[in-house]
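Structure ticket #2291
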Amino acid sequence: MLVKLQASRNACYSLNGEMEGRRMKAMVLREFGPPDNLAMEEVERPEPRPGWVVIAVAAVSVNRTLDLAVRAGRYPRPIALPHVLGVDPAGVIVAVGDGVGSRKVGDRVVTYPILKPAAGSQGPTLLGVQSWGGYAQFVTVPEEATHLVPGNLGLAEAVVIARHAPMAFHLLADKAQLDEGQTVLVMGASGGLGSAGVQVAKLLGASVIAGAGSNARVTSAVKSGADFGVNYREDDLEVEVMKLTNGRGVDVVFENVSDPVLFPKALACLARGGRLVTAGSHGGGVVPLDVSRLYMRQLTVIGSTGQRPIDTERSLAAAAEGRIKADIALMLPLEAAAEAHQLLETGEVTGKIVLVVDAEQLPAVR
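Resolution: structure written out below.
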């Protein structure tokens, strides 16, 4: 992992809950467009309201859809400007509102991105999408949208674990009903969600075939725990998977790419009665579907964006026990957010990019 940090303390707070001043620094988006539209500004710092907490942000990750697509103006729901991105900040609670009972000042927490919707809103309210997020020194969320970070888990690690592992647990354990001894094909296996899918599938006792778009990415997925790997840009995915499964196919496909060429190939890798679970559409989202195969082989296709609080709890616990590891490729200071977006858009980074807001909150990443 490459680390590129500034060793200064950015956050202005005291852990007795008395915040110093009423302003904060944040990367603000005032116009949709390229990464350079993100600019550091001084803005009003949030104050706690009833049932909510204020977090001094330590770290937040960079995500392709909920950051890059929102910044570029490609997100399918309206986004109000000016806006502050950041769906998954972690840090230390520095203030609590009236009625908060399960959290206190000084708690180290990660955030759950789905917030209670505002009155009259359509669909869920997402932190960093419909509300200001964690590309800032402070963020405010409802207390029920926080999870305590185990003491032996770093906050940068916790950001990455809480971002993707809960969804992987939800898709594989809850939706696909993956059983021990079954076989899973993980598509996009070196990405953030894909890497989590590989590790969660192994944790659940499955055999894992990693599908990725380059030899380097296949190697990365195998290092994450996959038993086999296929470069689906060079080799025929269906042919290779059938070789690896003695012609049977896999029980589950963990799909998060939605590429019009790769999706039908992944579906064709399913054994009779197999399940394809999907969350993500980086490849475009519109794919051909072989309906004859779907019903003749009694396949199931399940899409889901959800996860439950228990999925986050068991993800953090597994990480604290060393059974799941955060795949962090690069750590950059908050003011380098535009650079982080550019790097992620190139597709050359394997693993997550984490923006560090307060380096003093972060112990060394294991």
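Closing remark: Residues 330 and 353 are 5 Å apart (CA to CA).
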